[in-house]
From TrEMBL, chains A, B:
CDD domains: HTH_LacI, PBP1_LacI_sugar_binding-like. SUPFAM superfamilies: lambda repressor-like DNA-binding domains, Periplasmic binding protein-like I. This is LacI family transcriptional regulator. The keyword RNA-binding does not apply. InterPro entries: HTH_LacI (IPR000843), LacI/GalR-like_sensor (IPR046335), Lambda_DNA-bd_dom_sf (IPR010982), Peripla_BP_I (IPR028082). It comes from Paractinoplanes bogorensis.
Length: 327, 327
DNA sequence: CTGAAAGCGCTTACAG
DNA sequence: CTGAAAGCGCTTACAG
């Protein structure tokens, strides 16, 4: 009842194991008749290739690291979910690597995954990653990053058009009559976060940054600053959904209602936003597509040496946290 | 600059590679002097064992599947987070397997991970798992399940004392003057979910189940049923935090305030509850401990054949979603 | 198009 | 306590 090996298949099929191997991995080099016979035998024996042995020989496995700062954060959860599906479609298995926000650990992960002959890796960083530092690791030359880099870094990336996302948020808010719009970015060293903040700064008539530079406690601080204002903005854009949640919760605990007293729009489009109170209006990232694209970029890098940069389009998901400005 | 192999280490150290292997994996059988010399050489060469080769030879790898229904759900995210940490402490790497709520896929995962010579697996199910079905897979005999089984099933489990958790929720609510307490379980076929529901039924003076049997849309349905009531309960206990979120959101969208109009307590203790609006009062599962225990149970199963069942203690995390009953 | 051989990097009886 | 050999289950030049 134990897995038959390739030798077993060869014996039963009456061919050499090298032929079995070819029939499985490079079918076109084997005579059709032979191939079909072998495949039938393999099937009947319930043969499955031993990926460990294959990887050892090939020096390339099907194990790919997914390096995230915090799998507890639903954004990375959604990313991991779509990545897993996309990876499995191509026969890869995702190995979960969590840095806990300490991107330095990325190196150790790359090293240990290199020992597992990972064909490539996926990194969703929490800070700006230095391409040079990445390239010090063999596997670091075969990663795709879910963030942006300066061009010519040699690292493939998937991102969304963040400036456009902020623009969508403004269009939505302005359509509801809002003119005075503040921004809460929370910390996050990624280019993505910087891009969103910069886009806000460029678009706002009178930019107002709330809760700047506070990490845990962004919501609390932003709410305090908001309350201290002589003239309060009528709307707040958050740099991501998690900080939007934090801000709304803190505002709520201080008696400020959303969207009654102030409208809030998030950024990311987490499914969770639908269960929030109120439902979160948010700039939607196509997270599912990001997973698919990341895997495709990685394959294209490994197979053809192409360093691709894909920028996806955002859309708006309107729920209950935004309302027409009173008056 | 490529990883040196064990042969390289042996050559430099002037010993046979079998001795190097022993110095590394069974140090006590090697003469101290020899061992230290080998270790020094290995260190200086930057030697790291090739886990693939070792696994192939030993027929046991360091790759352990974490099988979850939905990594998008923060509960499984938190579980995955602690599991990863606990696993890495012992040199294991977690392979992410998501069934998408289709527990049938568990079998396929067990099979493919068996081919990777996984030493054991961890399963967080979404339905009652049949131990018999599990045992049809070789790896199915070496899993620990994060749910409960009938005793004697031969499957190690970690859970929390769910009845005690419901009791804590009642104590808290009754302490606030609540007498009329409803329950929303949402679907979920696990023993854990059933236990919570049963505990509620046992404890409530006049049991009232809301939103029974609806899966997506539990919150909506529960809110509708709540609103249709002539005499509304003053408090609602939810079978888990995610449904608590759903209920509060739906209630909120229909103008029913929490805790103003009704108190809500969740179950699980997700970190996210702190960012909810209002902050969620909830029965706290020691999720971190569950990860650690799961790994420990697995090792104990594999090393000593012991089938352990650990039941952890809940606690209460009180936040803003519960208040004294008016009057 | 197929076979025979070598070898990926380890571990583990088996001798000595 | 250490060495030499065999072998885990594959893949891939190399012949033919």
């Amino acid at each position: 009842m134990t897995q038959p090996s390739i030798d077993e298949v060869a014996r039963v099929a009456g061919v050499h194991k090298s032929t079995v191997s070819r029939a499985l991995s490079r079918p076109e080099v084997v005579r059709e008749e032979t191939r079909e016979h072998i495949l039938r035998v393999a099937e009947s024996l319930g043969y499955e290739i031993n990926p460990l042995a294959a990887a050892l020989r090939r020096k390339s496995s099907n194990l790919v690291p997914l390096i995230v700062p915090d799998i507890t954060n639903p954004f990375f959860g959604e990313l991991a979910s779509t990545m897993t599906a996309a990876a499995e479609e191509h026969g890869y298995r995702l190995v979960l690597c969590v840095t806990d926000g300490a991107d330095e650990r990325t190196g150790a992960y790359l090293e240990s995954m290199q020992n597992l002959y990972a064909p490539f890796g996926i990194i969703a960083p929490s800070t700006r990653i230095d391409p040079e530092a990445l390239h010090r690791f063999p596997l670091g030359k075969r990663v795709v990053v879910v963030d942006k880099f300066a061009d010519g870094s040699g690292v493939p990336t998937v991102t969304m058009d963040n400036a456009r996302g902020i623009e969508l948020a403004f269009e939505h808010l302005r359509g509801l009559g809002h003119r005075s719009i503040a921004y809460v970015s929370g910390i996050s060293g990624t280019y993505t976060a910087a891009e969103r903040r910069a886009a806000y700064l460029a678009l706002a008539e009178q930019p107002l940054l709330l809760g700047e530079g506070t990490q845990p406690g962004t919501g609390k601080r932003a709410a305090e600053e908001f309350l201290a204002l002589a003239e309060r903005p009528t709307a707040i854009v958050a740099g991501n959904d998690m900080v939007a949640f934090g801000v709304i919760a803190e505002l709520g605990s201080r008696g400020v209602g959303v969207p009654g007293d102030v409208s809030v729009v998030g950024f990311d489009g987490l499914a969770l936003g639908e269960r929030y109170n109120p439902g979160l209006t948010t700039v939607q990232q196509p997270i599912n597509e990001m997973g698919r694209v990341a895997i495709a970029l990685a394959r294209n890098l490994v197979d053809n040496g192409e360093v691709g940069h894909v920028v996806l389009e955002p859309s708006m998901t309107v729920r209950g946290s935004t309302a027409r400005v009173p008056g």
